[in-house]
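#struct-help
A.M.: can someone run this one for me? Single chain, 183 residues.
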Amino acid sequence: MILCNCFLKAKRLIIQGHPDDIDNAEDENTAGYPFETYGYTCRSLQSMYADLFLSYKIERAVYPGFESDTVFSLNSISSTVVPLDECAVEIEEAKLHYLREKKGGSMKKSGMISLAREEVQTKIRERLASNYIFNMAFIPEHQAMKFNTVLNFMAEKAGKLVKLTVSLEYRPLERRLRLITMF
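D.P.: on it. Structure tokens below:
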């Protein structure tokens, strides 16, 4: 469910984690590979930061028993956490009209171009647990909490997988997720 990495390579720089009890001002080649022999410079930082900010997270479904990842993510933008499967998806009619007019290609490929608003809401809600959430943010000027997720749809005519990025406003007190955009 995760892809563990040993280090990151950025041009001639190797970045890796080191034990948390070592100061970040120190650099340690914890992997033990002879990077310097091949002209690389090794830098390291405490693993709690390297693992949190420099690790890749595989797109995957949210399996029963592993919902804590989503809970921690939602808690980063809200002190009130309501599981996403307990929230209704809300799409304003004007937003759906905009998406059909301006994002018609994505809507058509996903098979949602001609669906009623309630059907689009249902399709989004059904797929929310099929991937992780990311890009959590609080937008002060709108007093809004939002996150993104990637939703997969099978294109009926092409028989290919269509991935759409969806941005949703998180309204835990109302148990609602308001669609911001989809592309």
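A.M.: thanks! The two ends are 26 Å apart (CA to CA).
D.P.: also worth noting: The first strand starts at residue 8 and ends at 10.
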